[in-house]
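Today's session is about reading a structure prediction critically. Students often jump straight to the picture, but the first step is always the sequence itself: look for stretches that repeat, for charged clusters, for runs of hydrophobic residues. Only then move on to the predicted structure, which in these notes is written as discrete structure tokens rather than atom positions. Here is the chain we will use throughout the hour.
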Amino acid sequence: MMRDHRVRSGDVELAVRVTGEENRPTVVLIHGYPDTGAVWDEIAGILAGRFRVVVYDVRGAGASTSPDDPLDYGLAVLMDDLLAVLDAVGATEPVHLVGHDWGSVQGWEAVTGERLAGRVASFTSMSGPARQHAARWARETLRDGPRGAAEVLAQARRNVYMPVLMAPHAGELLARALPTVFERGMRWREGAEPRVGHPAPTMRRDAVNGLGLYRANMGRGDVPPGEGRTDVPVQLIVPTRDRYAGEGLLLSARGCASSLVVRRVPAGHWAPRSHPGLIARWIAEFAEHTEGGPETVGLARAREAAEPGKDFGGRLVVVTGAGDGIGRATARAFAQAGARVVVADIDEDAARRTAGTIAADGGRAHDYRVDVADAGAMERFAEWVRVTHGVPDVVVNNAGIAVAGSLLDTAEEDWDRLRSVNLDGVYRGCRLFGRQMADRGEGGHLVNLSSLAAVSPSGTMTAYAVTKAAVLHLSESLRADLEQYGIGVTAVCPGVVDTPIMANARYVGMEGELGERVRDEAVRLFRRRSYPPERVARAILRAVRHDRAVVPVSPEARAGMALSRLSPAANRALAVAGRRAGDRLRARLAREADDRR
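Below is the predicted structure for this chain, in token form.
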């Protein structure tokens, strides 16, 4: 049942709509700029089966009237409006507040100030930080040195439109132009089809009226004193593809709410339109838990994600080939960043050692033996992860082996094993866990370990280079395939890294003592390069944070990738030179072996 109200607040009348049964907990949805309450239509319809849902057009938007003073949009009067709405609909019990964009800014004002003390049971925030939190985030991030300054500068670039909206005349011009581009942006950038009510037919007028939000609240000295702390339970829903607010800014509330959960949605700024079912489920889950219901597994993980300094808190990460080398370093790095890690390796003892090291460091890890070349074993592994721990948020397909030598000396069984581990294993990890992520509907990230050899031809490791090139192309193609599900895919291309891969490699065409001497030389070269796997692990974490497509790691990998684009002929010439150098090395080692005999 739907009921419409006209609510007086000062010199404006607010259009309020109430749906759902009167005797149920109340959820109040507050929209942002340049929307109206209609942006919530899908979510309100879903929630109305379990809650009484209140939606209203803020002053100057939709069917609500505008104030006489175009600057009468300060947060103090917006709190008057919210109080008027709560009183008019008979909200005698604390309500569950949900805000998006400027509606979220209003929600933060409600839960951090004194005006609505005791009136709010919980608050769900999307894409609108508190002013105090944003200011503190900028100050603290700038103290992090060049990288922090770059992050703040990147956020400033996202918000370059704000000074324009605040400027006389220029703001009006931009606001009036919004309707001409908004529908296209919703469709192509947000993945949400325009529909009746959104964008609203009043958008041109609403956008001009709403300039008062920026002009009344974003001048110098408008940041209220204090740290913006609250004891009201808060749920942060962070759209990971928000074009207007980076994740760091949106997470600036961490440490300021005594009870905080963090959830990430693979969406742009208008997540309420592109992912209404998921957002409604999270709102209901959080509100019902606040009302005394049980804490779900998802909420428990979201609570872990709220811990400051733990970028991957609450997330489940699967790493294959994690018994040593890059896989081990990556598993440890994710655990140190707060993630629960499933450590998988064909060597059960090595996997157990990695998990034990993580546990000794205070992290959480679970070991599992799996051969990624075995299709049935991978099926069982993926199902075990899902049933035992849940759907993973990040999967790192790292397991790999090497075969060195000419393709002419590479036997069928060598080729089959190399391909089945390096390529088929990655395919299986992507397909099995990617399907779980897609079915869950909350996004995720797949990381596939390729190599410098994928972009730099190799005459000494031809078969290996082919498999790694295939992994690179698989990753780039899969990124386009899974974008529709909000799943990121990254190909990581390390250079010469000090890992056991060359010690464990098979050297074809070099039997007996010669093969062992070549192995020793290869291991010595990699150790002399002394590029630690921990640096690759840090690059992997950065790639997941920033959803990078291809990440070369180490100077030689970056140089090789650049050369492959600038001069493929030079790249091929280097491969020939490398093969000739390898031939000379083998000839020298063979002579030395003959001399000893």
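Discussion point for the tutorial: DSSP finds 22 helices and 17 strands in the chain.
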